[in-house]
Specification:
CATH class: Alpha Beta
Strand content: 25-35%
Shape: globular
Helix content: 25-40%
Order of helices and strands: EEHEHHEHEHEEEEH
Distance between the termini: 26 Å
Strand order of the largest sheet: 5-4-3-8-9
Number of helices: 6
Oligomer: single chain
Number of domains: 1
CATH topology: Glutaredoxin
């Protein structure tokens, strides 16, 4: 079943690369007591994700946070080292937190997984954005396959 507005974020583990190495992040504690703008991309270093999706959130980070968002996070079914390298290459420092969903457990728990095996990508997460307030989904924008419209930073900013 696909997550809906009003649902609680499911229990899952992310991994974030820090200067001390990989850090396990529990979804329940991560989203507790904060308002998070979370977006998901099918893959780090992929064309639309690198040219538009992540850069849009980096560019609009201050405007989004000014609307009451405590943190902006990006997730993808990639390992933490790839997410860390992609974030570094995209200049996300202080703007977007990179959360690896290495095995796709979070995407699957949300019901937002996609099969990218036809493109040699295996199982991935769909492209989406959401606003999570204290663990509850307030906004949810899931893209149609191959589209990039409703999950952009600009679209989410208009919802805040």
């Amino acid at each position: 079943m696909t997550i809906q507005v009003g649902d609680r974020i499911p229990q899952a583990q992310f991994v974030k690369v820090t200067e001390e190495g990989p850090e396990q992040i529990d979804s329940e504690s991560y989203f507790a007591g904060r308002k998070i703008a979370l977006f998901s991309v099918p893959g780090a270093f992929t064309p639309t994700c690198s040219a538009k999706h992540l850069p849009g959130f980096v560019e609009k980070a201050d405007e989004i946070k000014a609307k009451g968002i405590d943190e902006i996070a990006c997730t993808a079914v990639n390992d933490a080292f790839v997410m860390g390298a992609w974030g570094k290459a995209q200049g996300v420092e202080g703007k977007v937190t990179m959360l690896a969903d290495g095995n796709g457990a979070f995407a699957k728990a949300l019901g937002l997984e996609m099969d990218g095996t036809g493109f040699g990508m295996g199982l991935r997460g769909k492209r989406f954005s959401m606003v999570v307030n204290d663990g509850t989904v307030e906004q949810l924008n899931v893209e149609a396959p191959g589209q990039f419209e409703v999950s952009s930073a600009e679209y989410l900013l208009g919802q805040l």
